[in-house]
Design brief:
By secondary structure, the chain is an alpha/beta fold. 45% of the residues lie in helices and 10% in strands. It has a 6-stranded mixed beta sheet, with helices on both faces. The longest helix is centred in the N-terminal third of the chain and has 20 residues. Bound molecules: iron/sulfur cluster. The site of iron/sulfur cluster has 14 residues, from α6.
Length: 253
């Protein structure tokens, strides 16, 4: 029981620290006792306890910008990836996130569900996020291209040129403190470099004024579990930058 309370307090502390990093300086006065914070959207809060709290203006602003970008994309047919896709995978998470993960492109599960990183690799990414003391809803997750390349091939240059401006707009709307670039292809697409990911990872790069940490893709970790250690080291560097402390060492499992 004591351990349960200790863990709960640690969760609350981590959550509050993260809210502070994301610029939330006040918590709402409310008689409800749910764990929703000032950054919770009215809709999700109401679904849990039927009491309204105000959404901070910065969150509402970023949310509006993201909705405008999504509307601009529409039923996009700007590149050939539209032909076989089932769903446009726009991105998911906190519009005001301090931490953003960017992958290469949707796979089969993501195409099916319209959400990034929901397959096996996505589940591993979710575990990594939890090990960092966060929830999936605390971060923002997106890809370089928003439609699944056939047979999970890498996106081609013309597809990247057409789609990546939307990702850039998402990044500008969210303005994360740290971007984690997942995998060799995403690193190559974003950084426009041929330097291998094994050489790029492990340190922050300055990219358009953002702190960017390249690291291995979770799908690569599924095939090479021994590479979890360097990824966890990269995530610890990210956590240090964000002032986060973890309770879990995923390598212990
Ligand atoms: S990948 Fe991007 S540019 Fe191409 S069709 Fe999909 S949304 Fe449009």
């Amino acid at each position: 029981m004591k351990n349960g309370i200790k863990e709960l307090l640690q969760d609350v502390k981590t959550h509050l620290e993260y809210q502070k990093i994301m610029g939330v300086t006040e918590m709402p006065k409310s008689s409800c006792h749910c764990e929703e914070s000032a950054r919770t959207t009215k809709q999700s809060h109401k679904s849990s306890c039927n009491k309204e709290i105000a959404t901070p203006p910065s969150v509402a602003r970023n949310d509006t910008k993201l909705k405008e970008i999504r509307a601009e994309i529409g039923d996009c047919k700007r590149c050939k990836l539209c032909k076989a896709r089932k769903n446009i995978v726009f991105g998911v998470g906190d519009p005001n996130a301090a931490l953003m993960f960017i992958g290469e492109g949707p796979g089969a599960d993501e195409d099916e569900q319209g959400e990034p990183f929901v397959g096996r690799a996505g589940q591993l990414l979710t575990k990594i996020i939890i090990a960092m003391g966060l929830k999936r809803e605390d971060v923002y997750i997106a890809n370089c291209v928003k439609c699944r390349p056939p047979n999970n091939r890498a996106p081609e240059p013309d597809e990247l040129d057409t789609c990546m401006p939307f990702l850039m707009k998402q990044i500008e709307a969210i303005k994360p403190k740290v971007i984690v670039c997942l995998g060799a292809t995403a690193a190559k697409d974003i950084l426009k470099t041929e330097v291998p990911i094994s050489k790029l990872r492990g340190k922050f790069l300055d990219w358009n004024g953002y702190k960017l940490m390249p690291t291995f893709h979770p799908a690569f970790l599924l095939r090479n579990p021994n590479m979890k250690r360097p990824v966890w080291e990269d995530m610890q560097t990210v956590m240090k930058e964000l002032g986060l402390k973890s309770r879990i060492n995923p390598l212990a499992k």
